[in-house]
């Protein structure tokens, strides 16, 4: 049911569905790409559009400009509209529902007039260690450095001059949603990465709000008045205004009046895209960052700095193992090999180079031949690194081959994740199935097999593994549309997904291979020991941005 429609399919029915608005549109702002995905009445992807972008390290802060947000959204929508017209000969003027998703966490602070007070501080920044530690102790609840409240409180501690002027805080998805609808709201999953959620009320934890306000009294307005209102999946989150339609599509092709679902974070859309919203299910999302989400049957007994407690888009409790660094270094090395091929006079498409590089990992030694790699482009709180330096090292007796190099790069992408998942195992958290999605898993049987070894558990990949969060938020928009004007859909999210989206889904499940597990275990021991090398590299090698700021 979630398989992409072939061009030879019954175009007449699809043209009618598009013209009548029996579709849903999802837009996700990921770390390296903004993607728009249109789905049909059966929730299968019909067309897509995208825009590539990159964050900037400016004055020591990882950021994106709001101008880049607007222009990127417009290009993604424009390429989607062109794709629809090219495939089906129909202009897309409306859809049944629309949803926006984006990378979670970070700091977007606005004044009363809606002006951004300081440049957007993304989840990638690790400058809030003191604030996160103080709030974790205050709340008795882990507050990671990425969370919005940690950024706000660090600004309070640092006595930043903009703090008294803050009147609205939100995430990137919340910002875009407000531009489209005028409403200051957020889906509960995304909101749970701003401030702790009370799962009994599906709202911000009132005890912790009061504790924060007492601690920050006189330095920042009451926090409840700054945060977006919290909405569960399926709730009415407003409709596309005329200004919002122009923000997305300045050509005027898209008409206002489209209902929107609550804006969500990329973790929530990953859960939806893998149907991992029920207890004892989980998923791994691999992109610029890599993280695992496990839906809990019960609260954890202890506070763990390695584990975020967030929620599904429906408000159920989730343990999240979030690693700042994912597949970017793997992709960078693939790009180098692509440049080498071009230098030999045999240029190849980047996708083909990446796949060939990834597949070579299967021919490597089970432990990577004694090689060691760290993918740390930025800091990594789970391993106590405030900054990162991508690193490859080996002993003289290691076996340096392409296959071992590739396997080690994949292992390195999973290393920090394994350390966090080990904490979950110590809490005896039940897990029946782990789903995986993201670009790494488009190449069948490689990253999936090695992830199974890293987790010591079966890993399932569906046909939508490469569609990502844009498809997930489109499905959440379709869930909102299923309410047909009611306050909420008549079925909970998990039941609806199982019946309407994944009933006929085809899954490829890979069990852990014993030799791979033993090899990965040996690699992980080396990985933990080698963290001292990574720390030394951070201390010894300043970035060019740091050097220039010191001049």
From TrEMBL:
Residues 24-247 form the Carbohydrate kinase FGGY N-terminal domain. GO terms for biological process: D-xylose metabolic process. The keyword 4Fe-4S does not apply. Residues 283-480 form the Carbohydrate kinase FGGY C-terminal domain. GO terms for molecular function: kinase activity. InterPro entries: ATPase_NBD (IPR043129), FGGY_C (IPR018485), FGGY_Carb_Kinase (IPR050406), FGGY_N (IPR018484). Keywords: Carbohydrate metabolism, Kinase, Transferase, Xylose metabolism. It holds the Pfam family FGGY_C. The keyword Membrane does not apply. Belongs to the FGGY kinase family. This is Sugar (Pentulose or hexulose) kinase.
């Amino acid at each position: 049911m979630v398989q992409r429609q072939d061009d030879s399919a019954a175009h007449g029915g699809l043209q009618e569905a598009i013209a009548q608005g029996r579709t849903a549109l999802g837009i996700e702002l990921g770390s390296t790409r903004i993607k728009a995905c249109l789905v049909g009445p059966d929730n299968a992807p019909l067309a897509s559009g995208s825009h590539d972008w990159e964050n900037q390290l400016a004055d020591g802060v990882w950021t994106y400009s709001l101008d880049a947000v607007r222009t990127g959204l417009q290009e993604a929508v424009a390429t989607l509209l062109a794709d629809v017209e090219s495939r089906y000969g129909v202009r897309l003027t409306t859809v049944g529902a629309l949803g926006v998703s984006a990378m979670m966490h970070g700091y977007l602070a606005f004044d009363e007039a809606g002006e951004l007070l300081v440049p957007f501080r993304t989840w990638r920044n690790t400058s809030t260690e003191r604030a996160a530690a103080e709030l974790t102790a205050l709340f008795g609840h882990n507050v990671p450095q990425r969370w919005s409240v940690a950024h706000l409180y660090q600004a309070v501690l640092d006595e930043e001059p903009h703090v008294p002027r803050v009147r609205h805080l939100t995430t990137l998805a919340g910002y875009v949603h407000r531009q489209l609808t005028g409403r200051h709201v957020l889906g509960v999953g995304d909101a749970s990465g701003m401030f702790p959620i009370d799962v009994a009320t599906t709202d911000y934890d009132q005890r912790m709000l009061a504790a924060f306000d007492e601690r920050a009294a006189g330095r920042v307005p009451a926090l409840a008045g700054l945060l977006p209102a919290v909405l569960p999946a399926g709730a009415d989150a407003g409709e596309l205004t005329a200004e919002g339609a122009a923000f997305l599509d300045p050509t005027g092709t898209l008409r206002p009046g489209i209902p929107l679902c609550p804006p969500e974070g990329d973790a929530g859309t990953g859960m939806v895209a893998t149907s991992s919203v029920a207890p004892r299910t989980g998923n791994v999302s691999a992109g610029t960052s890599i993280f695992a989400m496990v839906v809990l049957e019960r609260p954890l007994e202890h506070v763990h700095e390695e584990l975020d407690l967030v929620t599904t888009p429906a408000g159920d409790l989730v343990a999240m193992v979030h690693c700042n660094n994912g597949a970017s270094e793997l992709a960078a090395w693939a790009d180098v090999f692509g440049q080498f091929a071009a230098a030999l006079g045999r240029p190849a498409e980047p996708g083909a180079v990446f796949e060939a590089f990834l597949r070579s990992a299967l021919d490597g030694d089970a432990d990577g031949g004694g090689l060691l790699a760290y993918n740390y482009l930025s800091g990594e709180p789970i391993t106590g690194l405030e900054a990162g330096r991508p690193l490859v090292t080996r002993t003289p007796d290691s076996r340096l081959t392409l296959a071992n190099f590739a396997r080690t790069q994949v292992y390195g992408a999973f290393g920090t994740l394994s350390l966090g998942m080990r904490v979950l195992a110590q809490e005896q958290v039940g897990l029946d199935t782990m789903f995986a999605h993201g670009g790494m898993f488009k190449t069948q049987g490689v990253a999936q097999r090695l992830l199974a070894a890293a987790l010591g558990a079966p890993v399932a990949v569906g046909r939508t593994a490469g569609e990502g969060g844009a498809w997930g938020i489109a499905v959440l928009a379709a869930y909102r549309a299923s309410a047909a004007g009611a306050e909420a859909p008549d079925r909970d999210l998990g039941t609806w997904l199982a019946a309407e989206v994944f009933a006929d889904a085809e899954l490829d499940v890979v069990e852990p291979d014993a030799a791979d597990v033993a090899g990965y275990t040996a690699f992980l021991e080396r990985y933990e020991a080698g963290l001292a090398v990574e720390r030394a590299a951070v201390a010894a090698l300043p970035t060019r941005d740091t050097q220039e700021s010191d001049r």
